[in-house]
Design goal:
The chain is of the alpha/beta class. The protein contains twelve helices and 13 strands. The strands form two sheets. An eight-stranded mixed sheet has the order 3-4-2-1-5-7-8-6, sandwiched between helices.
Length: about 375
């Protein structure tokens, strides 16, 4: 039983449910599916597990309410549908959770909300306070105002970020598929379910297919990316079928349901570094020579000007950068102490050279190790 090695008592769980698990084949909200979901979340909460819900379905609900049968392609209509649909979605959730004896609180987020440290912490505090008040937070991307530049991209990623933000013990992603298969089960009925994934490797990533329903954005690709975020953050994740009876209780009860993704066994990553890794959009990149690459990866050193070989993009002091090794692999992200123009002046130079040319104020780290997150492999994207 490989899961038992990683599972402890689940005190707090995030559960994400996708649009396809809340709607029928025509994209219309299915009240029976929503009732089942609300009842299972409420049951887990009633047994003492703090539950946080990340839900999709606002656009589908809005299209249904507005009588639009085919998902439009223009962003303005989709945002209008989301604005209408979010009201309908929360009204339905409020009724269903209320019938089970629980109150809910709505939180709508865009990616921009996580880019400022104070705002990031405020989101966490709001969720914490809702849980203290025995209110179940129900979180969705704010599709009515989000544009491409500030979108999370899909609610699988949002759920993983919420799990990291709240230091949850488990993320459960409920889908219309039982988990990760060796092959596409819709194309090959004999394909076997993969019950346990110790590490997301390139071969695991190749197993992921594309998105399914026209009413949703997520597919197995987005779920694998969510698993990477959870693994780095030290959080186990399970993909399971929303149609499975008592699926949430069974997963929390350590049953072999769906596909389990093991967390990294490395030391717990500090909150500030999880924010750097996932909360902030990067504004540029720097490339290191071989010596600096080794010092950062193997020794946990800060990045000094002398080790920087190339700068890409235009950015300011305090922006977050991608850090590439000498063989052009992403190895870290970090907050820069210099603008791109200033790094161009001092890159490749040692302290003595910098002191002679620019003075003492330029003689410090490009990125200090306390503001640097080092990755084992090229796992993460903006």
């Amino acid at each position: 039983m490989e899961r038992n090695k990683y599972f402890k008592k689940i005190k707090r769980a995030v559960v994400k449910i996708g649009t396809s698990s809340l709607t029928d084949e025509g994209g219309i909200l299915d009240k029976a599916k929503m009732k089942k979901f609300a009842a299972e979340v409420s049951s887990a909460a009633g047994r003492g597990t703090e539950m946080i819900v990340v839900t999709s379905g606002a656009i589908a609900a809005g299209l249904q309410f507005l009588g639009i049968k085919k998902r439009p392609s223009d962003i303005s209509t989709l945002q209008a549908a989301a604005a209408v649909g979010q009201v309908e979605l929360m009204r339905t959730y409020g009724d269903l959770f209320g019938a089970a004896g629980f109150k809910i609180g709505q939180i709508l987020l865009t990616r921009e909300d996580t880019t400022r440290r104070a705002q990031y912490l405020n989101i966490r505090n709001t969720i914490e306070n809702l849980l203290k008040l025995d209110v179940i937070p129900v979180i969705n991307e704010n599709d009515s105002v989000a544009v491409e530049e500030i979108r999370f991209g899909d609610n699988d990623r949002l759920a993983a970020l919420v799990s990291s933000l709240t230091e949850a013990d488990l993320l459960i992603i409920l889908s219309d598929i039982e988990g990760l298969y060796e092959k596409n089960p819709k194309a090959d009925g004999k394909s076997r379910l993969i019950s346990f994934v110790e590490k997301v490797t390139p071969s695991i990533e190749k197993l992921a297919g594309g998105a399914g329903s026209q009413y949703s954005l997520g597919g197995m690709v987005s779920k694998i990316k969510a698993a990477k975020i959870c693994s780095f953050s030290g959080i186990p994740m399970v993909i399971a079928s929303s149609a499975c009876e008592n699926v949430i209780s069974r997963v929390i009860g350590f049953e072999q349901v769906g596909t389990f993704f093991a967390p990294s066994t490395a030391a717990k990553v500090r909150s500030i570094k999880r924010w750097i890794a996932f909360g902030i959009k990067t504004r540029g990149s720097i490339y290191l020579d071989s010596g600096a690459s080794h010092a950062v990866k193997a020794k946990g050193k800060s990045i000094l000007p002398v080790g920087v070989s190339k700068v890409e993009g235009s950015f300011s002091r305090g922006d977050t950068l991608k850090v590439y090794s000498s063989d052009e692999k992403l190895i870290a992200k970090g907050i820069s102490n210099f603008s791109s123009a200033d790094i161009e002046k001092i890159r490749g130079k040692n302290d003595r050279q910098i002191m002679e040319e620019f003075g003492r104020e330029f003689c410090f780290e490009v990125i200090h190790r306390d503001s640097l997150v080092v990755f084992d492999e090229n796992d993460f994207e903006d």
